[in-house]
Amino acid sequence: MPSTLRHTFDHQLVELQDDILRMGSFVVRMLSMSMQSLVQQDVELATRVVEMDDTADFMDLQIEHTCMRLLALQQPMSRDLRVIGTALKVITDLERIGDFAVDVAKTTRRLAAEPYIQPLDELMKMSQTVEWMVQECIHAYVERDLDLVNRVVARDDEVDEAYDRVFTQLLARMESDPSVIRQATWLLHVGRFLERIADHAVNVAERVCYMETGELKQLSASHRNGTENGA
């Protein structure tokens, strides 16, 4: 590729990465707001998160169009092709993370009129870890940082363990008091949403590893054991 075209292409790749960073930051904000709405039982805030989903979807489409244009016009090879292919995979995971944030927000609206059966401390700890994983997997993509990839993947087990604790606590409450089954079930869903978001962050991390090494492999123990991590 001639030097002038290479410079232009490199600039376009930087812009692509900036767009992905913005989308990642946006869905992390959706997640943070959705969990805040849940804890505070703030229906107005939850509704704002639901409305933000259209923006996340628009970002997804715009980045996809950018990737397809680069593939068609620049005909990249080797590592450049992996960079663009990874971007297409990353935005799919980010879009799903936004969807799960919306699911949390919708749970807020379902439970807003009733007192909680127990504090949501464990769910909030989960969400803080998950937010970190999403933020840092995007930074790993932008910075090509395989050490950061490994740190993101390592925290997936932490999220799984927290979900197990939430599950055990809520199951015990349901067994001792059947009247709480409805609310406990929805709170279990929130834990599951968070666990799935962590899986999507691991998906992104694995794609960063592929982008840099050319080797696509599962890095998470839960993925190796067959844990569902699809869309």
Structure report:
- By secondary structure, the protein is mainly alpha-helical.
- It has one domain: Phosphate transport system protein phou homolog 2, domain 2 (Methane Monooxygenase Hydroxylase, Chain G, domain 1), CATH 1.20.58.220.
- It is built from seven helices and no strands.
- It starts with a helix and ends in a 7-residue tail after the last helix.
Structure classification: mainly alpha
Count of structural domains: 1
Number of strands: 0
In the CATH scheme, the class would be Mainly Alpha
So, CATH architecture?
Up-down Bundle
Instruction: Give the uncertain stretches in residue-range form.
Output: 226-231
Number of helices: 7
How does the overall form come out from the CA principal axes?
elongated
Summarize the biggest pleated sheet.
Answer: none
Which series of helices and strands comes N to C?
Answer: HHHHHHH
CATH topology, by name, is: Methane Monooxygenase Hydroxylase, Chain G, domain 1
CATH superfamily, called what?
A: Phosphate transport system protein phou homolog 2, domain 2
* Mean of pLDDT: 91
Share in helix: over 70%
What is the strand content? under 5%
- Head-to-tail CA distance between termini: 36 Å
Give the C-alpha Rg.
Answer: 19 Å
Summarize the structure.
The chain is an all-alpha fold. The chain has helices spanning 3-40, 43-74, 78-111, 121-143, 146-176, 181-213, 221-224. The radius of gyration is 19 Å and the shape is elongated.
State the main characteristics.
7 helices; mainly alpha; Methane Monooxygenase Hydroxylase, Chain G, domain 1; 231 residues; disordered C terminus
